[in-house]
Amino acid sequence: MKIATYNVNSVNARLPVLLRWLDEARPDVVCLQELKAVQENFPEQAINDAGYSAIWHGQKAWNGVAILSRGGNISERRRVLPGDPTDEHSRYIEAEVDGIVIGCLYLPNGNPAPGPKFDYKLSWMDRLITHAAELLSSGMPVVLTGDYNVIPTEQDVYKPENWINDALFRPETREAFQTLLKQGWTDAIRKLHPNDRIYTYYDFFRNAFGRDAGLRIDHFLLNPQLESRLRAAGVDRHVRGWEKTSDHAPVWMELEH
């Protein structure tokens, strides 16, 4: 079973890229972030024509998350991260597909830091940690995947000294991510590629992709039931080089059935 995550950076503007990649990579399940489309403007027909069913939670101009499934039914579990009934951002959607609970998330960027946006990021991470603990106790196979906007270590960023004060790399952010991992989650990419320099995001500016000056901020976290089934994981880096593409590359993993 191949599961992928992809911050598309506008699902309609990047639809040709998304459809080309779906046809090439043929993942069984795809988690999308940053749809930048209201609920009724999600390109459901084009996704269906590509062989996928979908659930999504849209939002005007910003955010937005979706889960696609090729051939399997999607049973939606929730479309809001618990813990703050006043939070109206569409940043989380959760479903069961083929016996696996899949949480698709778009964690807040948090810049500028310090400030209200950074406070929101940390509070969102606290809510995620609480919900993740509940998912761990469920006994079901679970994956939490998406754009975490977290650079876990210096290994995960080109020139870490340039990111010291960025919300993605601040100590508070990394500590919260480590708290999450210590619950019992496995970082799939690092599990299989412990020493490799792997990036999932390249800024549109300063020829970042051409210089391989990137960040690893899109992650798969697996609970113990899925960690034992992990067989492969990687990044479709070449997709970042396509015309009119997202600033993120698709990330994927393969599980033994």
Automatic annotation (TrEMBL):
<feature type="binding site">
    <location>
        <position position="34"/>
    </location>
    <ligand>
        <name>Mg(2+)</name>
    </ligand>
</feature>
<feature type="site" description="Transition state stabilizer">
    <location>
        <position position="149"/>
    </location>
</feature>
<feature type="site" description="Interaction with DNA substrate">
    <location>
        <position position="248"/>
    </location>
</feature>
<feature type="site" description="Important for catalytic activity">
    <location>
        <position position="218"/>
    </location>
</feature>
<dbReference type="InterPro" id="IPR005135">
    <property type="entry name" value="Endo/exonuclease/phosphatase"/>
</dbReference>
<feature type="domain" description="Endonuclease/exonuclease/phosphatase">
    <location>
        <begin position="4"/>
        <end position="248"/>
    </location>
</feature>
<dbReference type="Pfam" id="PF03372">
    <property type="entry name" value="Exo_endo_phos"/>
</dbReference>
<feature type="active site">
    <location>
        <position position="106"/>
    </location>
</feature>
<feature type="binding site">
    <location>
        <position position="149"/>
    </location>
    <ligand>
        <name>Mg(2+)</name>
    </ligand>
</feature>
<keyword id="KW-0479">Metal-binding</keyword>
<feature type="active site" description="Proton acceptor">
    <location>
        <position position="248"/>
    </location>
</feature>
<keyword id="KW-0464">Manganese</keyword>
<keyword id="KW-0378">Hydrolase</keyword>
<dbReference type="GO" id="GO:0046872">
    <property type="term" value="F:metal ion binding"/>
</dbReference>
<dbReference type="InterPro" id="IPR004808">
    <property type="entry name" value="AP_endonuc_1"/>
</dbReference>
<dbReference type="GO" id="GO:0003677">
    <property type="term" value="F:DNA binding"/>
</dbReference>
<dbReference type="GO" id="GO:0008311">
    <property type="term" value="F:double-stranded DNA 3'-5' DNA exonuclease activity"/>
</dbReference>
<keyword id="KW-0460">Magnesium</keyword>
<protein>
    <submittedName>
        <fullName>Exodeoxyribonuclease III</fullName>
        <ecNumber>3.1.11.2</ecNumber>
    </submittedName>
</protein>
<dbReference type="GO" id="GO:0006281">
    <property type="term" value="P:DNA repair"/>
</dbReference>
<feature type="binding site">
    <location>
        <position position="248"/>
    </location>
    <ligand>
        <name>Mg(2+)</name>
    </ligand>
</feature>
<feature type="binding site">
    <location>
        <position position="7"/>
    </location>
    <ligand>
        <name>Mg(2+)</name>
    </ligand>
</feature>
<dbReference type="InterPro" id="IPR036691">
    <property type="entry name" value="Endo/exonu/phosph_ase_sf"/>
</dbReference>
<comment type="similarity">
    <text>Belongs to the DNA repair enzymes AP/ExoA family.</text>
</comment>
<dbReference type="GO" id="GO:0004519">
    <property type="term" value="F:endonuclease activity"/>
</dbReference>
<feature type="binding site">
    <location>
        <position position="147"/>
    </location>
    <ligand>
        <name>Mg(2+)</name>
    </ligand>
</feature>
<dbReference type="InterPro" id="IPR020847">
    <property type="entry name" value="AP_endonuclease_F1_BS"/>
</dbReference>
<feature type="active site" description="Proton donor/acceptor">
    <location>
        <position position="147"/>
    </location>
</feature>
<feature type="binding site">
    <location>
        <position position="247"/>
    </location>
    <ligand>
        <name>Mg(2+)</name>
    </ligand>
</feature>
<dbReference type="InterPro" id="IPR037493">
    <property type="entry name" value="ExoIII-like"/>
</dbReference>
